[in-house]
Amino acid sequence: MSRTKVRPKGIHRFLSVAVLAVAVAVGVAACGEQAQQNGNPPTTTAEIPLPPDVTFDGSVNGPAPSDESTNCDTSSLRPDEPLPPPGEMPRHSTMEEIYKRGRLVVGTDLGSNPLSFRDPLTGDVMGFDVDVAHWISEAIFGDPNRIDYRMVSTDDRVDALTNGSVDIVVKSMSVTCERLASIDFSIPYFEASQRILAYRHTGIESVSDLNGKRVCATSSSTSAGRVKALAPKAEFATTASWADCLVMMQQGSVDAITSDTPILAGIAAQDPWAKVVGESLGGENYAVGVAKGHPDLVRFINGVLAQRRTDGSWQTSYDRWLSVLGPGSPPPYTYRD
């Protein structure tokens, strides 16, 4: 006598649902495959976030090459000799006012390694520009660290001096005729060379290769104007800081960065695929910015810089921060009185 196996009703219902689910899945997959064959593949898009205050424009806002230092008198004031001892500033002088306040207020940037930056481990502010500020502080107070640092962008350097929010600016600030109309400068403490930073695979090797490319520079810097003259078909993105330029190059928003060699060396140290390319596009003399109406402070700073050239401090600082650029020496300078 044979036995017939009877499945419970629940099992029949489960099998029916499972078969239906498989059929639906196969149908969806077939429709998807047909859609892919007959149409464009599915894509996703996302807007790349850009740093704040970025401007894309074929023009530039920085000083044109005709405004550069070769077309005007960039000499500085002769220092009074000898320098007063620290803590004994001349009465009623700008230096005495700074001494009584207890702090030298310095406009700089804390994101421009190796010129001025904050060490992520110690929190100390350091760099070649910062050493210059330390020399001035030590000459006034006998203490290199009596400094109140104020962050200033490239755009804000002149305004920070003219409105009195800082005593001096030490921030890779080159001497130009346009700036000399608004502020005064010390003698140069560094002579920089402008070049280009690009990724190794881009084929950018000279300034002529920038035609048709997007180039990043900080707004109101002198770098963009010179590139525009040499590569008229280049387009520019201007930002508030060089760190923003690096972010944009990593995102592919720009093809290259142009600036002075110390700044480019600091940027390249953060990205092993970036390299400095091309010949020098011109020179820039960095000097300490001082508001007009304070010739005594200009003379005092010039005395400090002259002293630091002769006692070996300048060379020690260069060897520590800028030796990657090759051998260096203090730049030439002239006095106008």
TrEMBL record:
Q: Which GO terms describe its cellular component?
A: extracellular region; outer membrane-bounded periplasmic space
For this chain, the family text in UniProt reads: Belongs to the bacterial solute-binding protein 3 family.
Q: According to the UniProt entry, which residue ranges have a biased composition of type Polar residues?
A: 34-46, 67-76
Q: Does the keyword Signal apply?
A: yes
Q: Which keywords are on file for this protein?
A: Signal, Transport
The segment annotated Disordered runs over 34-91
Solute-binding protein family 3/N-terminal domain location is: 103-325
An example of a Pfam family matching this protein is: SBP_bac_3
- Gene Ontology annotations of biological process type: amino acid transport
Task: Return the protein name.
Answer: Solute-binding protein family 3/N-terminal domain-containing protein
Q: Which CDD domains match?
A: PBP2_GluB (cd13690)
Please list which residues make up the signal peptide.
Answer: 1-30
Highest rank taxon of the organism: Bacteria
